[in-house]
Amino acid sequence: MQLFLNRTSPYARVARIVALEKGLESNLLLLWSDPWADEADLLQRNPVGRVPILITDHGQSIAESLLIALYLDQASDINKLIPENDLAQTLHIVGLGQGLMDASFSTMIMRKHHGNEIDASVLGQRRQRAIERTLLSLNETYSALPTDRLTLAEIVVAVALDYVAFRLPQVAWQQKYAALVDLHEQMKTRESFSQTVFA
What we know:
Layout: E1 2-5, H1 10-21, E2 29-32, H2 40-45, E3 53-55, E4 61-63, H3 65-75, H4 87-114, H5 122-143, H6 152-167, H7 178-188, H8 191-194
Helix pairs in contact: 1-3, 1-6, 4-5, 4-6, 5-7, 6-7
């Protein structure tokens, strides 16, 4: 299999962490790409022009990190990350983590192209409120969950938290949300996280 990715995409990081946790990394060729450069090979595989893109052993391309995670979870019996016995709650938390990631990524992209003053716009303010509400909701959720869980939910949320710390440090979630700090510290100890830090 092949994986198109780059080092600063939280979505690509989720896909790579899932591959590592599923024991599939040795069967995965990493293709480092710049989606902003409109590389021909990447666009041929995904005309949307985004990473990650997984190319299966049969040559089928799969875009979008959560779809890639679903495929990889079924490709190996190691570490079932989308548990059938807790499917609804897992997917609920995945949705919150993905929403946090989307709002943070959109904030960074808009700042890059329009400057930090874009945060004062109606949409900018809406994104900031979404980030804070989602952090609060996730903190309440993880205050009531066991600390030894490892599902796709924990991967997505931890990557989103890392991305906020990386790109939007002024959010300072570490100073406000103790349960998220505990989750993040636990996930940071995993080899899959230490091998995929943002750079």
